[in-house]
Amino acid sequence: MRFLVRDRILGIGDDYWIEDERGNKVFLVDGKAMRLRDTFELKDVQGRVLIDIHQKMLALRDTMVIERGGEALAKIRRKRLSLLRNHYRVTLVDGTELDVSGKILDREFAVEYDGELLAVISRRWLSVVETYGVDVVRDDADPALLIAVAVCVIHLAEKEREEREEREE
User: Fold this and answer.
1) Residue 100 needs a FRET pair 20 to 30 A away by CA distance; which of 27, 64, 66, 148 works?
2) Worst-scoring range by mean pLDDT, 15-29, 30-44, 94-108?
3) CA distance 22 to 25
4) Phi, psi of 55 (to 5 degrees)
5) Dihedral of CA 102/36/75/15: which sign?
6) Segment 116-141, tens digit of pLDDT
7) What is the CATH number of the domain that holds 163?
8) Adjacent-strand bridge partners of 135
């Protein structure tokens, strides 16, 4: 199942729709401005919040938390001691770990569980400018969670790049 995401560099306060391959609106990413921490909500077409995404406060490394119905679902952070700069670890509340690796800033990366591919995020198979796709490979995978993971790692990678550029100035 493929989803199309209009790439708006995920600024806080930005809202954008995620569509299926037929162009139907499926999810709304609602960026919440005027918050102390980076916050997004993934909503369905009726406006119901499916997933809440926010920055974990007081963490040593930038960490995003994904919640569903007020309950923690996952934490995402850049993998420590990774030779790959763009390698993130998603830790689900049950202890399951997902690996996210690839060229995050180029929107070319994958989400895997125990070596098995769950989703591919790519611009390669799209002709629409400033759009990337989330291809959920497994039928039993949670598309909302995998889209939330993509939103989080892109946000963390963009934030890391901005901080690095500020230090270099």
Assistant:
1) 27
2) 30-44
3) 9
4) -75, 135
5) negative
6) 999 999 987 666 667 888 999 998 99
7) 2.40.160.200
8) 2, 120
Domains in the chain, number: 1
| 110-136 burial: b if 16+ Cβ within 10 Å, else e | bbbeeeeebbbbbbeebeeeeebbbbb
| pTM, entire model | 0.83
Alpha-helical segments (H) within 36-169: 143-168
In the numeric block, the tokens 């995050």 are attached to 104
The pLDDT mean for the chain works out to 83
Alpha-carbon span 125 to 90, nearest angstrom: 25
- The DSSP call for residue 119 is E
The two tokens of residue 36 are 């102390």
Strand partners, 41: 30, 52
34-48 burial, b if ≥16 CB within 10 A, otherwise e? eeeebbbbbbeeeee
Distance, in Å, from the CA atom of 62 to the CA atom of 78, rounded to the nearest integer, reads 8
Q: CA 103, CA 117: separation in Å to the nearest integer?
A: 16
Q: Are 48 and 65 in contact (CB under 8 A)?
A: no
